[in-house]
Specification:
The complex is a heterodimer of chains A (about 300) and B (about 100). With about 300 residues, chain A is mainly alpha-helical. Chain A is built from nine helices and two strands. Chain B has a single domain, classed as F1FO ATP Synthase (Up-down Bundle). Classes of the chains: A mainly alpha (about 300), B mainly alpha (about 100).
């Protein structure tokens, strides 16, 4: 017999669903209220909402930052909704979905990072979710935060800090010695290569998302001109409506927005995993820990 | 002055075009090679299709990086460089007047 859901459960459900939807609605309302009117065929950067005075340089709060906060709240609401009302006996549909997501992420992380890093599954899942949802934000007509280099560079710097932490954990001397390999002359190049990792990660993600939106704008612009050239003879207002712009940009957006966005999220997460696990010599570390323990035991 | 600004704009546009055109050769060839080898591998061992496909997509994304670099440079040349260059030119002209 199925247990009847009580009122509290339902109210919380509605709160979580609102948490998912409200940020997007907020973003759209901000978009409508604050953006100057255009025909949607302009290539501009993120709009600056306001500037905060700061000691070194004024801090600009842009559309990209605000939208990325909206995405974070949406993902949080989705997670809370999916994990609401977990039960061992009679799992609901959403619990099945949540379990599937967790299992897939765990499998991915275990497969490419190894046993030692299996605690990284939530981090990788968060990167995947936020990156994918940020790129998919174009579907509701908002500015995608991933097409602003500052947002993606922030993630890349976070990954760089993790990489350096694991390299240092493998031993400070080994880390410093790694710069002089294969010969001493290569040191500047090695330092450049170290810095190139976050730069290339940030540029790859940002460039792919941005190039998709630039191509979409160029194509809709071209289609509008073609439409006014071909169908301009129609009488009255009919001649002004760009009929050819209907449809084709949507088909292209399936590739550029949906496929490319999810693809880049996967690639960013994959590179994060490979870089972090590649930076840390797990076998050597365990060997050293074992020797240390043996020494301590011998000392006692 | 107008001639100088026009020259700057033309140089920026030309630079962006050349940058994108030459920068796209390498990734194009590289991705083509990767996909052709992946097709051969799938043809030889159809049961390994999933693993080969995911590895190929990963490799393609990495091979694309240099193309993306040139894309970023081209975007900078089109949208950012003209304003900066014209600003520098104008301030230089004002400085030259004061001499």
């Amino acid at each position: 017999m199925k247990k009847e859901k009580d009122l509290r459960f339902r109210v919380l459900d509605i709160v979580y669903i609102l948490m998912m939807i409200l940020p997007l609605v907020c973003g759209m309302v901000l978009n409508i209220l604050l953006k100057p009117a255009s025909e949607g065929i302009e290539i501009t950067g993120a709009m600056i909402y306001f500037t905060l005075p700061m000691p070194i340089q004024p801090l600009q709060i842009t559309e990209a930052q605000v939208n990325s906060v909206f995405v974070i709240i949406t993902v949080l609401g989705l997670c809370l909704y999916l994990t609401h009302g977990l039960s061992v006996r009679e799992p609901s549909k959403r619990q099945h979905l949540a379990e599937w997501i967790v299992e897939k992420t765990k499998g991915l992380v275990d497969g490419s990072m190894g046993e030692f890093f299996s605690g990284y599954a939530p981090f990788i899942g968060a990167i995947l979710a936020i990156s994918a949802f940020s790129s998919l934000l174009t579907l509701v007509g908002l500015y995608p935060p991933t097409s602003d280099i500052n947002i993606v560079a922030g993630w890349a710097i976070l990954v760089f800090i993790l990489i350096t932490y694991y390299k240092l954990k493998g031993g400070l001397l080994g880390y410093l010695k790694g710069f002089t390999e294969p010969i001493f002359v290569m040191t500047p190049l090695n330092i450049l290569g170290e810095v190139a990792t976050p730069v290339s990660m940030a540029f790859r993600h940002y460039g792919n998302v941005l190039s998709g939106s630039v191509i979409a704008v160029l194509i809709s612009f071209a289609l509008q001109n073609l439409s006014s050239l071909v169908l301009g003879w129609l009488p009255g207002i009919l001649g002004d409506i760009p009929f050819l712009r209907v449809g084709l940009p949507a088909i292209l957006s399936v590739y550029f927005d949906i496929f490319s966005g999810c693809m880049q999220a996967y690639i960013f997460a994959m590179l994060t995993m490979l870089n972090i696990s590649g930076a840390f010599p797990a076998d050597e570390y365990e060997e050293r820990m074992r020797r240390k323990k043996a020494k301590l035991a011998a000392g006692k | 002055m107008e001639l100088a600004i026009g020259l700057i704009l033309a140089a920026c546009a030309l630079g962006a075009g050349i940058c994108m055109g030459i920068g796209a050769i390498g990734p194009g060839v590289g991705e083509g090679t990767a996909v052709s080898k992946a097709c051969e591998a799938i043809g030889r061992q159809p049961e390994s299709k999933g693993a080969v496909t995911s590895t190929m997509i990963m490799g393609c994304a990495i091979a694309e990086t240099t193309g993306i670099y040139s894309l970023v440079i081209a975007i900078l040349l089109i949208f950012v460089a003209p304003n900066t260059m014209v600003g520098i030119l104008k301030s230089a002209m004002e400085w030259a007047k004061t001499l």
